[in-house]
Amino acid sequence: MTWIQPVNPLNSLTLSALVALVPILVIFWALVIKKTKGYKASIMACAVAILIAVLIYGMPVRLALLSVANGALYGFFPICWIVIAAVFLFNLTIKSGQFEIIKHFMAAVTPDRRLQAMLIAFSFGAFLEGTAGFGAPVAITAAMLVGLEFDAMYATGLCLIANTVPVAFGSVGIPIAVASQISGIHEMEISQMVGRTLPILSVFTPFYLVVLMSGFKRSIEVLPAILVSGLSFGLLQFFTSNFIGPALPDIIAGIGSIIALIVFLKFWKPKTVWRFANEKSPLTTIKETYTVNQIITAWSPFLLLTIVILTWGLPSVKEFLNTQGQLQFNFPGLHNSIADQKGTLLPHVFKFNYLSAAGTAVFLSAVIAVPVVGLTYKQGTVVFAATLKQLMFPIITIMSVLSFAYIVNDSGITTTIALLLAATGPLFPFFAPVLGWLGVFITGSDTASTALFTKLQYVTATKIGVAPVVTVAANCSGGVVGKMISPQSIAVAAAAGNLIGKESALFRFTLKHSFFILLFLCLLVMGQAYWFKWIIPASTPVATVNTVALNTALPGYTWLIILALLIAIFVALIKLTGRKGSA
Prior knowledge:
Blueprint: E1 3-4, H1 13-20, H2 22-33, H3 38-55, H4 61-95, H5 98-109, H6 113-131, H7 136-147, H8 152-162, H9 170-183, H10 187-194, H11 198-214, H12 216-221, H13 223-243, H14 249-267, H15 292-312, H16 315-324, E2 327-330, E3 338-339, E4 349-352, H17 358-372, H18 377-390, H19 392-411, H20 413-422, H21 428-443, H22 446-464, H23 468-482, H24 487-496, H25 503-530, H26 556-582
Parallel strand pairs: 1-3
Antiparallel strand pairs: 2-4
Helix pairs in contact: 1-20, 2-3, 3-4, 3-19, 4-7, 4-17, 4-18, 4-19, 5-15, 6-7, 6-8, 6-9, 6-11, 6-13, 6-14, 7-8, 7-24, 8-11, 8-24, 8-25, 9-22, 10-13, 10-23, 11-13, 13-14, 15-17, 15-26, 16-26, 19-24, 20-21, 20-22, 21-22, 21-23, 21-25, 22-23, 23-25
């Protein structure tokens, strides 16, 4: 028997929305006021959401429990799988001693903490977001900064904030592709609109990060480097999103800003080297001389990660891997058992794409890297077991967070809040980013937020006479701001930054910045809708739009053969040059 979601269970949209907000407010209360550990806060919020879904929305208990179970399963795979693989890869570099070489290499590029944060948290994190997404960028960059002896809280907080600007183009542009599919607006048009909004934040973000670290005065000392980092990223993001498409902005902008800043630092250095107050003596000089081979070997896990993830992101490779290894099933008792107000059945299909998943790409990189960094596979197995033990509580947190996300979506709670915002009439463009922010806060994914609210954004904009691409793009742009405070992201960052049990402190660290940037985006979108209409891209028929696809005529298995050959050559060169160097 099909259960139909009620969107106004109390016959007053305002009152229903206030009740619907309770589970979300529980998370804020638990993390901000009570300073509860992450897994406890998410379990509490999930329990409250179940009670409201059953008692107020009339959701059958059986469907509520199945929804929670479905969310927990999705939380374990693919989300936890990515975190486990990313932390495992990083732990290998620690166990092998290679991260000490990376630390010295970074000191050679720049010993200044402000510039290191820009290189790793901002630029490298954006590149990883463009290729993998789903939590991998925060997990890897936070672990790297903590390994570089950054203050753990600052490292993880900075990585969460830095991960804001690339999220809309993450995972090879999937959020925008989903927005296009649901709204009917061509993805190039949405890409252009988002690409005329986020580059403003991209230019500003490095400065914002450095101010958080060192204060305004110390930020001015490295203003030339900040401008090189922000402007190179913002310009590349703008041109790629407006003239190529949504698949490559993060990848090109991330790599471009890394190269631009490293080259710039060859010719310019800050007058003073800034480090955290409680640090030991700065690594201004390298005590040991490392060969090029040693440096490449130390970076090899991340170089392998880059090569593998880029290959995994190719559509033909993804398609091939899914045909070779994917288990798909309708979730028993839940699939097509819930309908929205229009009578549309809600599918609940679980895809166990164990080969094409981003976590598998990261794990494969780690497995290949084990002998390269000088460990045996027996030692690698010990490191993997230790990683699982390290991540026990974060895994519980992530699974309970996704359970919360599923129950509020399946019960209609999220839709009630969205409809209240949609009822604001001409003010709706101001609240359009808030919908995206809310969706990402709940689900931890800009893609999921887009799937939830894009149709509502499109229909509401059409009713009030605003170009639909403005509000649809605002959903993607607003979603990026919710990423830094999403309980899922907080759990991932805490796990990688060795802050397990301190999720509430991390949440408080990022919360005000999320609200501040969200307000800026709301005002910007309002201006785009009514006053700066010249910034809106012209609507172009789908047949006449030419975009550069991230694919070629080569089939997926051919790309995998090329990948295997490249890795074999890479590993062989490291081993050969290593033997020569030791001789």
